[in-house]
Design brief:
This protein has helices spanning about 60-70, 125, 135-145, and strands spanning about 15-20, 30-35, 45, 45-50, 70-75, 80-90, 95-105, 115-120, 150-155, 165-170, 185. The protein is built from 3 helices and 11 strands. The protein is globular.
C-alpha cells in the first residue's frame, strides 16, 4: 500500500456540517441569504453543524436543520446524500467535513426569514449571477450539477492565497430513490 505524504494543511479546528439542497415543484432551488458567518452576506443552501456531542448522524442533522431553518418536517430517509467534501483550511480558519444532501420531495412554499437570514427560490441558471461563496461557485454548484443523483467524495484544498484544488476520491453514478413524504408545519 502506498504511503501518502504528510498533509500540508495547517493545524486548525475541524468542523462537521451538512448542506441541504431543496427545490420547489418548479425545480427552483431554495437558498438562504446568510446573516451570520460563515459566508455572511451571500446566498447558500440551508444547513448547519452536526450535534456531535449527541452522536447525531449526518442524516439526522439534515432533517433537524431542515426543520429548524425552514419549518419543514422530513425523516432522515427523505434525504439523498450526494456528496462528501473535506475542505482543508476554508478561509484559513478551519477545516470542514461537509455532507451534501438533496431533499427528495418539493418544498411547498418559501419559508419565512429566520435569525440565520432570509430565503429565496432561484433557478439553477440564476444562481450563477448571485453573490455566492467562491468555493461554491468553483466546486459546490458544479458538484450539484453533475452528481446530485449519484454520489461523489472529494477533498478541496481551500487555503487562502492559492487556487482551489479539488481531488476526487470516489464517483458513483446513480439515481436517488423514492423517499418518505414531507410534512409542512
Amino acid at each position: 500500500m502506498p504511503v501518502l505524504p504528510p498533509s500540508s494543511s495547517p493545524a486548525l479546528t475541524h468542523r462537521i456540517a451538512v448542506l441541504v439542497f431543496m427545490e420547489n415543484a418548479q425545480g427552483d432551488l431554495l437558498l438562504l441569504l446568510r446573516a451570520k458567518p460563515p459566508n455572511r452576506g451571500v446566498w447558500s443552501p440551508p444547513g448547519g453543524k452536526l450535534e456531535t456531542s449527541l452522536g447525531e448522524s449526518p442524516f439526522e442533522c439534515a432533517a433537524r436543520e431542515t426543520r429548524e431553518e425552514t419549518g419543514l418536517v422530513a425523516t432522515p430517509e427523505a434525504f439523498h446524500l450526494f456528496a462528501l467534501i473535506s475542505e482543508k483550511a476554508y478561509e484559513g480558519e478551519s477545516h470542514w467535513l461537509l455532507f451534501l444532501f438533496r431533499l427528495q420531495t418539493p418544498v411547498p412554499a418559501l419559508p419565512p426569514a429566520i435569525a440565520e437570514g432570509s430565503f429565496g427560490f432561484f433557478s439553477r441558471a440564476a444562481i450563477d449571477a448571485l453573490p455566492i461563496p467562491a468555493t461554491d461557485r468553483a466546486a459546490l454548484w458544479p458538484i450539484y450539477d453533475r452528481h446530485r443523483d449519484g454520489f461523489v467524495a472529494l477533498r478541496a484544498d481551500c487555503a487562502p492565497g492559492r487556487p482551489l484544488q479539488l481531488t476526487f476520491e470516489q464517483i458513483m453514478p446513480g439515481a436517488a430513490t423514492a423517499s418518505s413524504p414531507i410534512i409542512h408545519t
